[in-house]
Amino acid sequence: MEAMGEPLAAVDLPDPSPEPTEVIVAVDACGICGSDLHAAVHLPLDGTVLGHEFCGTVAATGRDATTFTPGSPVVGLSLVTCGVCEACRAGRIRKCAQASMVGFERPGAFAEFIALPESSLLALPAPLDYRHGALVEPLAVARRAVQRSAAAPGSTVVVLGAGPVGLAVTLWLAHLGAEQIVVSDPIAARREAATLAGATATVDPTQGDTAGAVAEACGGAPQHVIECVGVPGLLDEAIAVAGVDAIVSVAGVCMEPETVTPILAMVKELDLRFSFFYTRDDMVATIDEMAAGRLDPVGLVTGEVDLDGLPAKFASLLAPAAASPADAKVLVRPRQDSNLRPSA
Ligand SMILES: [Zn+2]
Ligand SMILES: [Zn+2]
User: What class has domain 142-274?
Assistant: First the structure.
């Protein structure tokens, strides 16, 4: 990305060479994330290579990097951390004081190659392919969001938004065994996608009285609400639909001021929580559950582009969601000779 608010540009950069403990990964796929879209508009990331939801194949290893061999399929963590502090040793990598975000604070994976410390890579086991690999990071983010929401087997949960975050959260809620998963989204195609991901009911918030429609779908006021959109107005809506004593958790990335009416939350004594990134365990568990066949997120992938096609696709995703309602997760495929192709 050359400048804030400007379209992305495909440019030639020198191939990275590995530091002693680094690995060079040939990128097989990297998902376009809502935070890339938000950042392109709101953050001064001039000269940054975006892209943080990626998998690939090890192309080269540094002198002291011994965990992976060339040709190994790997998934990248989107945070590079020190690896030795208390937070890192506990797997709470977002809390590492030295954490740097791939694709924002260091070069990302909308590129043919990326260099990362070997400690920031996880093995992608067979039979998982590049689609699973690129979805590990957003699913880990969603797993964290579900944990923060305190939803449990048998819970009734409302999910606001059926974009990539809301759909990934819905998949995990179904995996968890939530009894009722009510998803609200203004776009019919997204509500259909939510149903396929495991929603037990959907609500169109443009039809007025969303709180009433949600309560009716839930059979009562919900105890867990997860906001998965990240635009102003949605936090207020989450407070409005939540039941007395409910937990409202925020997974949508909003970079603009938001107005809420605190008394509406006070009278219900709501707990308001936020989630950000994931723990290392969320990444590992996501890979394990996919490899075991208990979590199938491939339906989230609705499109693929190469690097040359990325700027135009990125621009279209920046338009209001109603303009491209079928898009959930779009993958960038920098190279077509991938050895992580689906087997069937
Ligand atoms: Zn992301
Ligand atoms: Zn650390």
Answer: alpha beta
